[in-house]
User: Fold this.
Amino acid sequence: MEFDLLQRLKYASQLTSQEKHIVDYILKDPEVVFYSTAHELAQQTLTSASTIVRLCKKLGTQGYPDFQLKLALQYRQTSSSMKAEKEPPLQQGDIQAVIDSVPYLYGQALDDTRRSLNLSTLTKIADWVKRADRIDIYGSDTNYYIAQQACIKWNELGIAAIPHNHVNQHYLLTLKPDTSTLSFIVSNTGENRSMIEVAASLRDKNMNTVAVTSANDSTLAALCTETLLTHGYHEQLRLSKMSSMISTLYLFDMLYMSSITDTY
Assistant:
């Protein structure tokens, strides 16, 4: 697979809090790397040059100069096509463009989600599904539709699964702490207030919860036991919601397929 430093930055795992801060800082403006020494970048991020170098090596480069070079080359190659990758141009009434663009959007969402997968996390969650007596999936708007689809599939296998589109305070209050109930909480940004309220209530009961979100540093992700990352969601892009739906369905379908192999 082609070395993709921008993707490694976006989906880096097992980083310290300082390293995560540096990554977030770079992703906001990658060009800052081109004009800063390791010492200068350390000053801007309130870290140290040694931390910068250690992060560069974790990301697969030999050090900061090598990191600068690889990021500069890749950024130059991709910057001209970033707008097209985020949202292919469509003209009203252009059916052929729609035919060509939809598979492209689907493929990009699936590839992006696949690259962000953590095998050990997915394996753990699949095991939770296998041992669960009941699965609850919380989501609002289009995410509730996805929750319904996922629950229908699990119900067909004899696995009790219930979709929820709002905060059911009575249910949450009467729910007894029980590790046999697994809850998925879906929010594109990870900042939906209702979903955060659900996650907080379930955390107080020490329940296993899975955040399904595009933001690993979101409030929802922090409240949940594990996180499954979806394709990056951007509110300003018209087609972002479509890509996010495909990504979320892909994650649930993988867990469904795992359930099939366990059931049959």
